[in-house]
Amino acid sequence: MKFGSVDNPGNIDFTLPPDHPDTIRVLKKNPSKKTNVFVGCAKWNKADLKGFYPRGTKDELEYYSRQFNLIELNATFYRIFPPEQFSKWYDKTPDGFRFFPKLNQEISHWKRLNDDVAPVVDNYLYSAVNLKEKLGCVFLQMHNNFAPKDFDRVINFIEGWPKEIPLAVEFRHTDWYNDKVVAEDLFQLLEDNNIANIIVDSAGRRDIMHMRLTNSRAFVRYVGANHQSDYSRLDEWVERLKHWKANGIEEIDFFVHQNIEKESPLLSAYLIKQLNKELGFSLKIPNDDSDSQQTLL
């Protein structure tokens, strides 16, 4: 079973929790007059995004990057690519496009932020910085069995992270968010070090759903359930993002996932239309000639 998937999504209460009391305080510390917004999918390959690419498309990334302005780069979790590969990705994509690469599994899942992880991080970043201004934000995703007993490792990792490279973090063990003392210590650590606290909106993991921003970046990983409720959930997100925009958020990074990924471009396009309409953005609407709301399973 994929992370957070459920058999009957219609039985889930998807209501977004209220903002954490400190979220608006964080936004108002240094309110931005302009909000940058990036929306896109987790993958660009044709095998997953079935039906998205026109017949005869030769380069999937080149086409994808002219429809969306963001990609969650999961491939970097499985291997550390050489600098030349990042440079090729950079060259294929237009100005304004952003990559959000996941830190390699050796860092998060094998070494689990141990003291000897620094050389691996350095090697990873040596390559990733070749994305130059198209490097949106690196993100760290820990295994769901990585618990607060190893909080000292998190502190050392966060405090040692190079400040010039944006970072966001995601924890999946329930105690990071549902042990109040642990949660507040974690939030403060991230806030003090200008690290984004990733929000994961997934059907089967409402226990880790939080609305605590720790800097002026909203990094949202939205996992649809291939159900009609996916659209009403996005409508609620539009209202929350409108509220954050009114309070000076600087950047919104919204990643649309699906258990069956072929529908991710449809949901992303719907979200973009709503953001343009309700928040006054002018994002490109991806090519889609179908009635997206009638194509979900």
Automatic annotation (TrEMBL):
Recorded coiled-coil stretches: none
InterPro entries for this protein: DUF72, UPF0759_sf
This protein's name: DUF72 domain-containing protein
Origin species: Winogradskyella pulchriflava
